[in-house]
């Protein structure tokens, strides 16, 4: 049975070396570069006046209909292309969007029913599409070098010269790719986004992201709020140039990566929800389901309602990255690192009619401390929902049955970010877990890193020798690892042999080589 790491082991001299890694993180030199509130990254200020808050109505992404269906599958077609959107009043913004929208259209799948998505791209650069949270064979996982685009996209300036991009010459670019998702997984809030090697940060920033919701019979039996009472909320900070275009500190000539000043991550000063700045949603006095997604490149969120209703506990968590929890959990606030999701219920009948309830980010300052608002109407609007005491049966992975314990150190190198002291190199596998076997994986870091595993979710066992955090419940696929802290998770990979990815989901870190491959074997 594995033993949890203590804080002394993590911070003491040679603590990581004692784990057999041959490196020692000590007290991280980047700690003094965190912004107030513990934010990693650097704020990029917009060059135009920020829009008024709560003036825009909350948009809800359209649900994409399949182009055809048969007895075993639903088939979709999506094209990534440039389009013009009115994100800010008085200005047009060029977005790179799936179907030309930001966010992209929402896909809905049934657990156990295959979904096939044909992706094409008309963008200036190729794309790779990753279904984040999907239990997916490796050839549909969106490997960073399995690209969609034209033959001209083989010429990606600077790719071979950038630290962490060795091996990029192995990229394959096809005019279209069919991504097959078996959907052998529980109901959950997934999302799809670009995963192109060296360019994930700027391409997601320009709009390449959308929801993919999985539904099943267990979830349907709960009678959760649906229709207009179910709101997917994609939260993303962005900054804008004087002409209304997205501002991003990329490198000259379109090379991969980011300017040195923003290597720790890019923070925007405009909070977008479903592509609208600080929007307003008009709600009835009844239960709502909010599917919260942090789609920011680097910004962490601590979301809370203001004012809190009498008695607190306004955010009733029912699900995490990998679907339903066993029981509802009441929170005054929930933390979301980039790529994390939290499925919550809010009973707006706890507020008097006419109340404006703000969704705030307690880790933000000034404008970035506000996210959106809800205007509570006078209509009772009872949708008949009653909160159950139990939601689901969640299998527990027993760490005592682990066949292996592995440690992964996320650390800054001289020019790039590393995993176990190495920058990403396609084709180099750093672990070979066996399918169907439980393992304990330890993540150790010198900075804020939201660590994401492909293929299967995991369960958080503890942090720095203690138990899991307040927002670690249920099945997770992304976990926020804090500076000089260790997190232990139990994971079991199933069904699909092949190469998959482990990486930081701070997209600037990912683009600057903080990624590694592992190979699942029979």
Helix-and-strand structural type: mainly beta
Averaging pLDDT over every residue, what do you get? 90
β-sheet strand percentage? 35-45%
- Helix count, per DSSP? 4
Round the Cα radius of gyration to an integer and report it.
22 Å
What is the tally of beta strands?
34
InterPro entries: Cu-oxidase-like_N, Cu-oxidase_C, Cu-oxidase_fam, Cu_oxidase_Cu_BS, Cupredoxin, TAT_signal
EC number: 1.16.3.4
Protein name: Multicopper oxidase CueO
Family: Belongs to the multicopper oxidase family.
Provide an overview of this structure:
The strands form 8 sheets. A 7-stranded mixed beta sheet has the order 16-15-13-18-23-20-21, with no helix packed on it. Strands 2, 3, 4, 6 and 10 form a 5-stranded mixed beta sheet that branches. The protein is mainly beta and about 525 residues long. It is globular, with a radius of gyration of 22 Å. It starts with 6 loop residues before the first helix and ends with a strand. It has helices at about 5-10, 200-205, 215-220, 505-510; strands spanning about 40-45, 70, 75-90, 90-100, 105-110, 115-120, 130, 145-150, 170-175, 175-180, 190-195, 210-215, 230-240, 265, 270-275, 275, 280-285, 285-295, 300-305, 315-320, 325-330, 335, 340-345, 355-360, 370-375, 405-410, 415-420, 440-445, 450-455, 460-465, 480, 485-490, 500-505, 515-520. Mean pLDDT is about 90; it is low at about 1-40 and about 155-165. The chain is built from 4 helices and 34 strands.
